[in-house]
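Quick review question:
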């Protein structure tokens, strides 16, 4: 295996969802394709890419999926989307390396690797894996999953904190912290766009703390809010205050347009190891928007975030601090603009898609090289 990207073939394993399939149908360069986790960027570097959503899984795969998950959960384990993995093992084994983009397919692939059915090197992206490992029941099950995950060439985390937690939990398994990236060329500042909302918050992550934001909105009727959320979040919100507009399941391009027309972006998140509203945060920073975000351990280090320099960081669940940061930015448009400009500088310097894709490509080449060495 040479170090030339043009000789490398990578099989992407995605969770099967309407969002992902829509992204794959969108033209290259469309905003929606960010959720393909670097597929386009690797392809542009000469890598041969395939993925598990090229065709619909056959009916027999769903039956195997149900049986596998019933067995695993019945034994105190943790399952996943086997239906999106089983039918494509042949294509995965013909690739130089397999990249699992989320735990939902990563766990099945790791278990299949342990069983000897997946033979290509596996690079496993973890998104909340420590929380999943904590749910395992019994020492035997914990050893099984540690052994399966140890078959991966490397486990990648977008959170430095999560990466360290996995090192402690999995011992000698290689864990790599890789900061996520954003397309700074596609998401540029839109100077001259008139704001139509004071505060916009966007995201479907289950860790988002929208109830906290609604409590602040109820106390601040003079401030207009817009929430772009999932249907599940919307149902949980109940009847929001009159100064809060709620939009459900918008396409990404429309959601980004809402952010562009906001005076600031606010992203309250409950404490957790893997999510700090990371994708939306980086998108807003790239567009030079002033952002107020919860300082979860997931983003407290590794993303060059500095409170009062390129964003406003507040403790998760701190309603008073969140309100104060928003009010101060809204009262100081010039200061908010400076914050947004430095956010854009940070995104260009440290958090671009090119930086992310180059680091990911290097890791995938190493994994493929290790296979060649064996």
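Suggested answer, residue by residue:
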């Amino acid at each position: 295996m040479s170090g030339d990207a043009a000789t490398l073939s990578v099989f992407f394993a995605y969770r099967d969802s309407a969002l992902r399939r829509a992204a794959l149908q969108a033209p290259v360069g469309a905003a929606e394709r960010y959720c393909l986790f670097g597929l386009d960027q690797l392809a542009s570097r000469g890598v041969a890419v395939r993925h598990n959503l090229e065709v619909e899984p056959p009916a027999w795969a769903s039956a195997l999926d149900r049986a596998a998950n019933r067995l695993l959960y019945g034994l105190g384990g943790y399952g996943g989307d086997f239906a999106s993995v089983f039918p494509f093992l042949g294509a995965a084994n013909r690739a130089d390396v397999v990249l699992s983009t989320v735990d939902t397919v990563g766990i099945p692939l790791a278990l299949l690797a342990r069983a000897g059915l997946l033979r290509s090197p596996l690079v496993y992206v973890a998104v909340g894996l420590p929380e999943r490992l904590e749910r395992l029941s019994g020492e035997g099950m914990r050893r099984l999953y540690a052994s399966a995950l140890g078959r991966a060439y490397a486990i990648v985390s977008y959170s430095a904190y999560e990466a360290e937690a996995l090192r402690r939990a999995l011992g000698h398994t290689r864990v790599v912290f890789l900061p996520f990236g954003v397309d700074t060329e596609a998401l540029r500042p839109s100077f001259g766009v008139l704001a139509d909302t004071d505060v916009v918050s966007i995201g479907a992550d289950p860790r988002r703390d929208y109830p906290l934001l609604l409590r602040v909105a109820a106390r601040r009727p003079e401030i207009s809010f817009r929430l772009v959320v999932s249907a599940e979040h919307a149902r949980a919100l109940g009847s929001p205050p009159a100064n809060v507009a709620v939009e459900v399941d918008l396409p990404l391009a429309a959601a980004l347009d809402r952010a562009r027309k906001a005076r600031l972006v606010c992203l309250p998140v409950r404490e957790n190891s893997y999510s700090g509203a990371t994708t939306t945060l980086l998108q807003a920073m790239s567009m030079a928007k002033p952002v107020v975000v919860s300082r979860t351990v997931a983003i407290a280090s590794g993303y060059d975030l500095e409170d009062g320099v390129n964003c406003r960081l507040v403790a998760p669940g701190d309603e008073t601090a969140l309100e104060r940061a928003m009010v101060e930015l809204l009262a100081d448009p010039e200061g908010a603009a400076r914050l947004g400009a430095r956010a854009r500088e940070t995104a260009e310097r440290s958090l671009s898609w090119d930086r992310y894709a180059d680091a990911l490509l290097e890791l995938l080449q190493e994994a493929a090289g290790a296979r060649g060495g064996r």
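Why it works: The chain has a mean pLDDT of 94. The radius of gyration is 21 Å.
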